[in-house]
């Protein structure tokens, strides 16, 4: 026993000595969370506000509720009879009803009295009231809104009251795991502080065209909408906007509009009362692995141009359907959804360099951006396609890849309602369970290109598919046009 005890003590001493002599870098150093955010929260509280908005309906609530149909002998019949009789007799208030909405916001300009919140907090409001942490209240006017990013800018007249503004930080510098703090008005409980980390970046929750949310586990609940998400320097790096929650309460998955997007929108709303976004005027779709292989690209990246908008910035075929945009104004386009956001952040009228892949070859083109808001007024159904030419004399119909295709003559145009500007070969039949059906091809669509070469007859369709098979290609890239000329690309297996 003595020898065993001596051995254990000797081994313990050796281990302690060994640990003491190890270099410090060999032991992982884990950064501790903030011991307290009390000072930070105390300094930021005056800048965060609670927002109460109300909407006056023109008709009373009870008058809009019909008498429910109850089964014969229902025990509730007497109660409902009495309620609706009283309503008809005028005992119920039939005057205008008021709907209340609660949210959060923060001061960004103390001199001008500018306050940022979410658009959905004040949407359709007749009255907006801002409540400060010291108990004071001010009426607010709407400066401007942006539904695409769900941002609104309000203005108050502070009078003798001194406002304290916060500034935006750089959301691009935020890393997954960085500490953040939210202050807001959850469930009407003003001045609530929660702390967490950035859980993820670049989240797309399908709420708008420019989704690029920061995800956080800092508790965000109903009423936090429009409130700020701070970094540990007290800078706003996000606007709390949405949560995922089956119960309606926080489960640790909240989303914030990054300051990279919000700052530009707020600046435009403050200057113009509206947004003025850059616009390229192209229709795009994702580059899948199959499309990348069909285009001779090394990997799936970028945004595939499915068409251009007539009257838009693209002129003289600078960018064409089938091009893949991989870089815009010096910024890489890794996914399709990157392009609309980056273009929208660019100034209207700026000339930008765009790197495209056209038929397997990279090239750089220059385009002067238009304004998105003007582009939205154009006919979205129109498309410019310089590769389309007048159709030639029709040939016989043929079947390929599960489709029967025929000539796009006057009879076919009338039968399927195809516009005069659409040129190619019409799909007259799609076999169930075929590769064409699997890719969503429908009768009446028009094949305009195969492997980026135009086709005008069914014979050319068959020949082109046969040629691709001889080249050892596994997939065929088809450009299809809808009845009104809107283009899209699909890949079809040829095995």
UniProtKB/TrEMBL annotation:
SUPFAM superfamilies: PDZ domain-like, Trypsin-like serine proteases. Its EC number is 3.4.21.107. Residues 52-71 are annotated as: Disordered. One of its GO terms (cellular component) is periplasmic space. One of its GO terms (biological process) is proteolysis. The keyword Lipid metabolism does not apply. It catalyses: Acts on substrates that are at least partially unfolded. The cleavage site P1 residue is normally between a pair of hydrophobic residues, such as Val-|-Val. It is found in: Periplasm. GO terms for molecular function: serine-type endopeptidase activity. Substrate binds at residues 120, 150, 223-225. Residues 1-31 form the signal peptide. Transmembrane segments: none annotated. Belongs to the peptidase S1C family. PANTHER family: PERIPLASMIC SERINE ENDOPROTEASE DEGP-LIKE-RELATED, SERINE PROTEASE FAMILY S1C HTRA-RELATED. This is Probable periplasmic serine endoprotease DegP-like. The lineage of its organism: Bacteria, Pseudomonadati, Pseudomonadota, Alphaproteobacteria, Hyphomicrobiales.
